[in-house]
Write a structure and sequence with these properties.
Structural class: mainly alpha
Low-confidence stretches: none
Number of strands: 0
Mean pLDDT: 84
Number of helices: 11
CATH superfamily: Tetracycline Repressor, domain 2
CATH class: Mainly Alpha
CATH architecture: Orthogonal Bundle
Order of helices and strands: HHHHHHHHHHH
Strand content: under 5%
Shape: elongated
Distance between the termini: 63 Å
Length: 193
């Protein structure tokens, strides 16, 4: 795959939202039409549909790493909510590309490769917020490793984003972030009477 110019990259990611067929059935002609990139130009940069999928993944991860970042200051609960807001906002900006990636995750690598890759910094950000919260007395010290707890919370956020995207409820991202953090923060146990 050749280096992709910025304007073609933007068109391709935006075009993913306009595909009228699923990516599994999409031909290069469909991708060219949806993105507005001439077919010859598309083939010049991407010899195959798999190369387009790999590019979409890399482009989404690059933007994700740039935009889904925690605030350095403030209470841990508010920082966690804003971090999850940024995750949901990222998915809202590119719902078609996000659905394509989720639907074709098996083509991007094995589950163990994806689960252990450094491609998802969310767990690291959540871990930093939790550590700050423990230090500041806002978060109780968990009995298991904080890194594992952060991984569970980031997985929960990513799965919630995927579910909201698939169900068409992703546009309610602010409410989803607040609900998710409240669920984690307050737990699901009954309030003592």
């Amino acid at each position: 795959m050749r280096t992709v110019p910025e304007d073609i990259a933007r068109k391709l990611v935006a075009g993913a939202d306009r595909l009228t067929v699923g990516f599994e059935e999409a031909r290069m002609d469909d991708i060219a039409r949806a993105s507005g990139i001439p077919r010859a130009t598309l083939y010049y940069h991407f010899p195959s549909r798999q190369d387009v999928l790999t590019f979409l993944h890399d482009a989404m991860v690059t933007e994700y790493c740039r935009t889904v970042v925690p605030d350095p200051d403030g209470p841990a609960r508010a920082r966690l909510t804003r971090l999850f807001d940024r995750l949901f906002d990222h998915v809202c900006r590119h719902p078609g590309a996000a659905l394509i990636l989720v639907s074709n995750i098996g083509q991007l690598g094995t589950l163990s490769e994806l689960a252990t890759s450094a491609a998802d910094p969310l767990a690291g950000h959540v871990e930093a917020i939790l550590r700050d919260g423990v230090r500041d007395g806002e978060v109780r010290h968990v009995d298991v490793d904080i890194a594992y707890t952060a991984l569970v919370l980031s997985t929960l956020a990513n799965c919630t984003a995927t579910r909201a995207l698939a169900s068409g409820e992703i546009d309610r991202s602010r409410r989803i972030s607040e609900w998710l953090v409240a669920l984690v923060w307050d737990g699901v146990g009954a309030v003592p009477s």
